[in-house]
Design goal:
It is built from 21 helices and 18 strands. The chain is α/β, with parallel strands linked by helices and 570 residues long. Bound molecules: ligand LCMDX3IU. It is found in: Cell membrane; Mitochondrion matrix.
């Protein structure tokens, strides 16, 4: 490696770290990051959705990479938030000294991070964290959080430090990062005052990436330097996972755990349990701590790299047309797009990303599998499962639905095939539905499986087709043809299968003419009550689902239904 090369790719995994900055809105998270990276302060407040920065260092001949995730203070995106907990190596939790509630949120955040890390069996439990009591420049009369109270609390928790800061006056910002880096055993030179900041233009950066020195010819400079990448883009979920797994492997090696089973043999039993699961999805579940490999041991990760390098699972394909601002999201889990934990997690994250993409105004939900919109929830997730997995699965469904039903985007369902149960829920949660004429069916058929549609499925159907039709539809577990669905208002338009997409595009044109703000306010006010009903009792609902679905009588019905599906086929 050239000693002058500061290349994003040149940092070995052991030298790559992700710092996540969390806290409620308006506590100064972005201001702290901005001080650290650019020594700048902006008095204007612009709410952050999620900003990603990358700083590269060359320290004592080695290249280091620090990724910074500056998160949203309001958190309408739980999947992204959970991912930030899981992928963070070190954390800054920020509160404002003039806002006691923001301090309470910091205490909650710490618990949530530890919970997430603990649920991920391959990671160590307590990552290094620092608590920043920001806006310490505020007059004492406005102070709501006492220094001593926080210091006392922090003294009782592991791997945690505390400082009061002022991003505005640049008070203790350098010390904040220095203390955190020390706690995390990172090179002290990563602190702002201990390296030379290199301001680098795009061209110079490109030169550096090609290995061309950006120092004057012949001049040697071994002093530590740091450069903010001008092209930083948040890595994809897949890259996040690859990196997190690589890290876990390192931690594992460091801990010198003996006799680690090979992942291929360790996970084999699960391939029959989770039909048509890809290695990628198994790995993801293992990573989430939901699948315990054989013998309950942690898997070897070298093999996982090979698996990740195989073609991406891609259960949810997103195609963003930046000219029109319309994204097409296609479910892609043959044979029937049944929704398992993996698909739901991918869907949630895809929706959250579109939600934060300012250029995106509309989304078409469709299928990449011919003849199927979605067969609803993966019945195998509910059959002979464990309480923990049931809860995780249900949470993923809740998140995906909250993201879809509560989306600011214009959402349209292109139903080019069968759409039972959970598939019908997804379609009903869009603003408009176009269905293919012919043999395909749609409806909430839960009672036919011996299960009961949850209250929020019912709420959405009530809002779509009214009380009387819902009552009939739900009791009978009715499945409707496209024409029948049209007659009760379950879909908005029925066209020949090959015209579904073009009809959606035509309909979208009139929706796109409406100013977004007015449309979004109207949509929100219409949907808020239904969204709030689930949001206020998510955990209770997840627990209730697990208890209900694992009842012996319900399991028996599900078993019989699965057998009937297989019999019908033969
Ligand atoms: C007051 C108390 C409230 C408590 C609330 C608690 C609980 C409520 C819980 C749950 C709510 C659940 C909602 C759901 O979504 S349940 C899922 C319901 N889905 C279905 O019933 C669909 C069943 N499938 C079909 O009807 C057909 O497959 C379909 C018409 C979709 C397609 O037919 P096609 O002929 O093309 O394909 P098949 O040969 O039938 O299927 C291929 C293959 O796929 C398997 N499969 C089908 N659907 C599912 C599924 N949903 N999950 C898992 N696997 C599925 C099928 O068995 C075939 O497998 P194989 O034989 O090839 O191995």
């Amino acid at each position: 490696m050239s000693s002058h090369l500061v290349d994003e790719c040149a940092a070995p995994p052991k030298n790559c770290f992700r710092l996540v900055v969390l806290g409620t809105a308006r506590v100064g998270k972005t201001a702290i990051v901005s001080r650290f990276l650019f020594n700048q302060y902006d008095d204007q407040y612009t709410p952050t959705i999620e900003d990603f920065h990358r700083k590269m260092y060359r320290i004592r001949g080695e290249v280091y990479r620090l990724d910074i995730l500056d998160t949203s203070g309001v958190h309408p995106f739980p999947a992204m938030r959970r991912l930030s907990f899981l992928t963070g190596d070190l954390f800054i939790l920020v509160y404002s000294v003039d806002n006691y509630e923001s301090y309470m949120e910091v205490m909650r955040l710490r618990e949530q991070i530890l919970e997430s890390k603990a649920s991920c069996k391959t990671r160590t439990a307590a990552p290094p964290m620092i608590i920043a009591g920001n806006k310490a420049d505020r007059p004492e009369s406005e102070r709501e959080v006492l220094y001593d109270e926080v210091a006392k609390w922090v003294s009782t928790v592991k791997k945690c430090a505390f400082l009061e800061t002022s991003a505005k006056k640049n008070g203790n910002i350098n010390e904040l990062f220095q203390t955190l880096f020390e706690l995390a055993k990172l090179p002290p030179e990563m602190s702002p005052s201990l390296h030379r900041r290199v301001s680098i233009g795009d061209q110079a950066w490109e030169a550096a990436k090609k290995g061309i020195s950006f120092y004057p010819r012949g001049k040697q400079d071994d002093n530590p330097l740091g450069v903010v990448s001008p092209h930083a883009r948040r890595p994809s979920l897949r890259s996040d996972l690859i990196e997190a797994e690589a890290k876990a492997e390192q931690e594992q090696r460091r801990a010198e755990k003996p006799s680690i089973p090979k992942i291929s043999s360790a996970l084999s039993p699960y391939r029959s349990q989770y039909r048509s699961c890809t290695w990628m999805s198994l790995l993801r579940q293992a990573f989430q701590g939901l699948v315990r490999p054989a013998g309950g041991q942690v898997c070897r990760l070298q093999v996982q790299h090979r698996c990740y390098n195989a073609p991406a699972a891609g259960h949810v394909q997103v195609d963003m047309n930046s000219d029109t601002g319309v994204a097409t999201v296609r479910l892609n889990r043959p044979p029937v797009n049944s929704l398992n934990l993996d698909v739901l997690t991918e869907l949630s994250i895809a929706l959250e990303k579109l939600e934060t993409d300012r250029s995106c105004r509309a989304m078409v939900l469709a299928s990449a599998v011919p003849g199927i919109f979605s067969a609803g929830l993966d019945i195998m997730e509910m059959y002979k499962s464990t309480p923990e997995r049931c809860v995780a699965f249900w949470r993923a469904l809740q998140d995906a639905w909250l993201n879809l039903y509560g989306s600011r985007l214009i959402t349209m369902a292109a139903i080019e095939g069968h759409s039972p149960a959970g598939g019908c829920l997804l379609a009903m949660s869009c603003d408009y539905r176009v269905m293919a004429d012919g043999k395909f069916q749609i409806g909430l058929n839960e009672t036919r499986l011996g299960i009961v549609a949850p209250f929020w499925f019912t709420d959405v159907m009530l809002c779509t087709i009214g009380h009387r039709e819902t009552e009939k539809a739900l009791q009978l577990g009715a499945m409707y043809s496209a024409q029948q669905a049209l007659s009760i208002g379950l879909v908005d338009k029925v066209v020949p299968a090959d015209q579904v997409m073009s009809t959606v595009q035509t309909e979208l044109k009139s929706w796109l003419q409406i100013p977004d703000a007015a449309r979004v306010i109207t949509k929100t006010s219409m949907r808020k009550q239904v969204l709030d009903r689930l949001s206020s009792q998510k955990e209770k609902d997840a627990q209730f689902f697990a208890d209900f679905i694992l009842r012996e009588s319900v399991q028996k019905s599900l078993g019989a239904y699965i057998a009937s599906l297989q019999k019908r086929k033969s």
